Amino acid sequence: MGRRYPHPYLHDSDKPERSDMTLPGMAGKMGEMDINDASLVIVAHPTRGLVDEKFHVAVLNLRPHQPITLHSVFQSEENDFWEAYGHYISDAKGMVKADETESLGGSFTGRDPMGLIWSMKPVPGSRTALRFRKRDVQTPYVVHISVFDGHISSGFKEKSALACTVMERWYMAPGVCRIDIRQDGVQGTLFLPPGPGPFPGILDLWGGGGGLVEYRSALLASHGYASLALEYLFQKNTSEKSAVIGEEYFEAAFNILKNHPKVASERVGLFGLSFGTSVVLAMAANSTAISPKCLVCVSGSHVFPVKESLSGVFAEMKTNLDKLKVDENNHLIWRNLILPIPTDPDKKVNVGNIRCPLLLIVGEDDQNWPAPECAVDIENMMKKAGNDHLLTKLSYPGTGHLIETPYSPHTRFSNFMLADSREKVIVLWGGETKPHAYAQEDSWRRILKFLERHLYQRSVL
Questions:
Q1: Where's the Acyl-CoA thioester hydrolase/bile acid-CoA amino acid N-acetyltransferase domain (predicted)?
Q2: Is 366 noted as a catalytic residue in this protein?
Q3: What are the pLDDT digits (tens) for 63-89?
């Protein structure tokens, strides 16, 4: 802090312990920048925090009305660089505060330091159709924030930064415990908050991409919930395993979580994204073996209810493959697979049977799944059944399918591996960057309030 650094692109690793050191390759006038001088200083805090925690960035000791560029970059676990940048002009005192000074251009505009995260895109020349996903939640992703003189929009790695600082962004708070689950045929990862418990529990189901996705569960545990990230669409031997996975598998997973000694057995909820929403709604409406306390469903559908096995759902979907479309870039659009919404009640989850609070979140520009249309039908079905008082619906304009944890970089399209065939395609998710970022931040805040109300408070209905 307060010294000149070569750009982080030039180095092989991101090591936060180097953030207050002179990095290799510094020479000439760079060495003249001393922290005791009245030199340019960049301050970011907190330097270590959870991914859903806002940070603040300020640049001091600039010239009055000096144009600068704030640039952020991190290296993913797949060794791809992602970046964002904003153009600023210092005030009369030579200061820029990113939450007070407006970004006039760049990858985002306005007074929002978190734009340095949510507007990130792969750097020019990267592999195509990338999506940022953290796989190892026991390590942070490390963000370098640099100050450059003038308003620049490219060639950052060829330029010397005036100053640089480093921040760590974590999904796991200190003390959160990660436990591999291999029990009763169930596979997943359990995250437990620090302390003796018992904690409210959340069974966490991701979507049709399959595999074990842990980062949302890790963040939920950081907020006080025992969260089980469930693997149910397996990336290896998918077709064989999916053929035998159905209601019993999800009931077994729910009961493993419920019966854990650190989990409050009467306060367990379900959380589903995309295809996981179909599973969550079917479990809540049809299962007599479990009694979830509440449901959170994001970007999903009540069509193609999960019954005996997942293979039956996939077979039903394949009958509609002629409805698939592509955009002008040959990106796959799935939303027409289940449009129009069926009128046959046997083709839908009977959401009128749901007996616990449901938070339903949809993006109005979802190009992957007809979540907005499904939300309307769910609401109508629940009104007809007399249980619509249990429904809270959040609908966000300009928002796509991948409504993730706050400040996650928006992905409009990305590579995708089909769960049953393992064929690689590029899928259009939808959304525009700024409204999508707002939806992620606002919905997460409301999700946490919803979970607190229905899982931490014992009498809410």
A1: 52-183
A2: yes
A3: 999 999 999 999 999 999 999 999 999
Splitting the chain (461 residues) into consecutive groups of 10 residues, what average pLDDT does each group show? 34 34 29 47 95 97 97 95 98 96 97 96 94 94 97 94 96 97 94 96 91 96 98 66 77 97 97 96 94 97 82 80 90 92 93 98 97 98 97 98 96 82 85 97 98 78 37
Residue 250's nearest CA partner among 199, 284, 224 is 284
Q: Which of 87, 144, 401, 436 is catalytic?
A: 401
Element (H, E) at 97: strand 96-97
Does 334 lie in the same domain as 293? yes
Task: Clarify whether residues 136 and 196 are in a common domain.
Answer: no
pTM: 0.89
pLDDT at 216: 97
Catalytic annotation, pick one of 204, 366, 377, 420: 366
Mean pLDDT of the chain: 88
Among 242, 274, 299, 311, which one carries the catalytic annotation? 274
Q: Is 401 a catalytic residue?
A: yes
Same domain, 320 and 186: yes
Domain co-membership, 363 together with 432: yes
Cβ neighbours for 207, distance < 8 A, ≥ 6 positions apart: 273, 274, 275, 276, 299, 300
> Given 151, 170, 189, which residue is the final one in a domain?
170
Domain termination site, one of 124, 142, 170: 170
